[in-house]
Design a protein that fits this description.
116 residues; three-stranded antiparallel β-sheet; rod-shaped
Length: 116
């Protein structure tokens, strides 16, 4: 067979060029995994009702705890408590996503340099 058979015209790759990219991708994958592990350990808190309801979430959106002030239960009706719980959980999720963006955003930006 002739040299260059089945090669796209104008496509010249330097030997080992894809190896360097693979190393970069592997290093970035390891950094992403480490950042995800750290996110699972970090927490954010969201409170509503002047601290009557508090939710603690991890950076990977796992709810770790919900605290309700016992004083709230004396005066609250079920609908009000449900609304406060919903608000606290959604606020906790929002804070958790913001933390995730802060920690993971710079790593995702590195993909653009690799052609992604």
């Amino acid at each position: 067979m002739a040299k260059g058979f089945n090669r796209m015209p104008g496509s010249k790759k330097a030997p080992g060029a894809s190896g360097g990219m693979m190393q970069q991708l592997k290093a970035m994958q390891e950094q992403m995994e480490l950042a995800q592990q750290k996110l699972a350990e970090e927490t954010v808190e969201a409170t509503v009702g002047g601290g009557a309801v508090k939710v603690t979430m991890t950076g990977d959106q796992v709810c770790k705890s919900v605290t309700i002030d016992p004083e709230l239960l004396k005066d609250a009706d079920a609908e009000m408590l449900q609304d406060m719980m919903l608000s606290a959980i959604n606020l906790g999720l929002e804070k958790s996503r913001q933390l995730q963006q802060e920690k993971m955003g710079p790593l995702a930006g590195g993909l653009s340099g690799l052609g992604f």
